[in-house]
């Protein structure tokens, strides 16, 4: 097991949100370092089960022997497939902690962080063919516009795209350090790190199709969770949080209210938390990466 892999964010709050009973079947779609999963198992009886997802091979090294623990080495967008494969349909609760793990950020060769230079990778699934280097060096202008407009809060996207295109003509951008070097000349003064983080975020979301996977997973929870069961989602940027909020309110991530022939809202959940739960100052001081976390809890109707 990798020590200090991930300090689970909003641990008590997420466990409370799941409202776990001893014999429940719970799904943790983001196993990571196993922090949330281990505490979930502590609340389950010998008859309870935990199904944990992770597409990262290194994360799967953190699993431990427990007959109540089932592992799905897959992206959580295949939630319903594995729930049925393991014959645990329907489940009593689903937890999603959408953040990149501390381990992924801290290993330079994974390419997630602006702090240390490593390969321009950013793949959560190391078997995937799409890397950050391919996005940066080969994406067409229209696709670069799409990802930076949709997945980051960057004011002058046109300037960024033109600069990337110009820079990669002269020299291929292979590492995170080289990408930061390219961005330095157009980064806004006194907000350089925020700018770099936004660019990296947009590329990472594209590489891992994070929004598509989140959309697929959320829609499948409407089938996978039994009536009265809980959905708990911890997000780390406004795009994710908006999708989760829309899904709980309307039944789809776009927030478009759809009604059946009787005029009833098609939403499958009701919000338990009207406003997102955020970490305490004490937790943020202990774990700075929790600063942007927002948690929403919903109950299946």
- List the secondary-structure elements in sequence, H or E: HEHEEHEHHHHHHHEHEHE
Report the count of strand segments.
7
Class by SSE composition: alpha/beta
Tally of helical segments: 12
Classified by CATH, the class of the largest domain is Alpha Beta
Average pLDDT for all residues: 92
Cα(first) to Cα(last) distance is 39 Å
Task: Name the quaternary structure.
Answer: single chain
- Report on the biggest sheet: 7 strands, mixed
CATH architecture of the largest domain: 3-Layer(aba) Sandwich
Q: At the third CATH level, what is the topology name of the largest domain?
A: Rossmann fold
Number of domain units: 2
Q: Strand order within the widest sheet? A: 3-2-1-4-5-7-6
Give the helix proportion (percent range).
25-40%
| Percent of residues in beta strands | 5-15%
Q: Give the low-confidence spans.
A: none
Architecture overview:
With 301 residues, this protein is α/β, with parallel strands linked by helices. It has 2 domains: 11-102 and 210-300, Rossmann fold, CATH 3.40.50; 109-208, DNA polymerase, domain 1 (Orthogonal Bundle). It has helices spanning 11-18, 35-43, 79-85, 102-106, 132-138, 141-150, 157-170, 176-184, 192-208, 210-224, 238-250, 281-286; strands at residues 25-28, 49-53, 69-72, 91-97, 225-235, 269-271, 294-300. Strands 3-2-1-4-5-7-6 form a 7-stranded mixed β-sheet, sandwiched between helices. Helix 2 (35-43) links the parallel strand 1 and strand 2 (49-53). The longest helix is centred in the middle third of the chain and has 17 residues, at 192-208. It is globular and about 60 Å long.
